Amino acid sequence: MDKVAIVILNWNGAKMLAQYLPTVLNYSHDEATVYVADNASTDDSLDLLRREFPECKTIVLDRNWGFAEGYNKALAQIEATYYLLLNSDIEVTHHWLTPLIEFMDTHTEVAACQPKLLSIYDRDSFEYAGASGGFLDRYGYPFCRGRIFETVERDNGQYDYRQEILWATGAALMIRSKDYWEVGGLDGRFFAHNEEIDLCWRLRIRGRKLYCLPESYVYHVGGGTLPKSNPMKTFLNFRNNLTMLYKCLPDSELAHVMRVRWFLDYLAAWEMLLLKRNWGDFVAIFKARRAFARWKKDFAADRQAIQQGRVAQQIPEQRMFSLLWEYYAKGHKKYSDF
């Protein structure tokens, strides 16, 4: 049994593996076993792994299961105390693992943690996908220390302190295997996007804690699978975010939040069309709303189980304000503004 299993989920990412896997192996092999789980790639990823990285363990999946279920399928084949889910486009740093392992070893109340994510293109700036730890506003909009919507801060050490968070980025997520499976892992029905926020929120509802440890830091390319403006990404983000809210919100908040989100989602759709001339994302939001309405009933049992396991009605890391109002009306563009 491994103590730490670093698991990189790959799909047609041979170029990313060739560039960034060497740093993972060089800076992690003393403290972890490195796995690549391949989601039925059609490029030369598997040949590359056999030829260039024989020390890396490989798990071959039978088809592209997506991010969420792909990880579930792969992790089910690995015995480890800690899983570390790592994107293929991450460049790790010397001794990056040590603070994460030491913290998890000594804080048994913590289910998961993440390092600080910096941009590989501007190494003095945070990276969009997780920055220095994630939160949610009242209506399900995610934000981070170091990134609010499209505003990404430079890293001047302003968040170089350990912080309890609501969600840790799936780009570099260390989680206890026991906690992972006790809440059912990632929701494979999501395929991709919001799945790590959903997982982390379910852990917080059960009273488990999550942290960002900025003394550990890595560099992330970001957007390695889909560009930011992409109808499929927009569809998955809206559908999955609504589903996550339905599953995880307490009864006292559910009806109100869903009414407000109905208005905000359609407002966003018309903004896409009228102001940005983006027909693809306009249609994607409508499709996402319809898809959520169709499959909502499939998550009724999930919601019941999650609410029955709730240990606190209100979670502090879900902030009870509107991020849209704070950002656009009040001009609060940074986490430190709140």
Description of the molecule:
The chain starts with a strand and ends in a 9-residue tail after the last helix. 40% of the residues lie in helices and 20% in strands. α1 runs parallel beside α2 and α8 (251-274) runs antiparallel to α9. It contains eleven helices and 13 strands. The longest helix has 24 residues, at 251-274. The protein is α/β, with parallel strands linked by helices and 338 residues long. The mean pLDDT is 95. The chain has helices spanning 14-28, 45-52, 66-75, 97-106, 177-182, 195-205, 231-248, 251-274, 279-295, 300-308, 323-329; strands at 2-10, 33-38, 57-60, 80-86, 90-91, 110-119, 134-136, 142-144, 147-148, 151-152, 163-164, 172-176, 209-220. The chain is globular and about 55 Å long. Strands 1, 2, 3, 4, 5, 6, 11, 12 and 13 form a nine-stranded mixed β-sheet that branches. A two-stranded antiparallel sheet has the order 7-8. It has a two-stranded antiparallel ribbon with strand order 9-10.
Gyration radius (Cα, Å) is 19 Å
**Main sheet?**
9 strands, mixed
The total strand number stands at: 13
Low-confidence stretches: none
Query: What is the helix fraction of residues, given as a range?
Result: 25-40%
Summed up, the helix count is: 11
Question: Please, what is the average pLDDT?
Answer: 95
Helix-strand topology string:
EHEHEHEEHEEEEEEEHHEHHHHH
Principal-axes geometry comes out as globular
How far do the termini sit from each other?
44 Å
Structural class: alpha/beta
Strand content: 15-25%
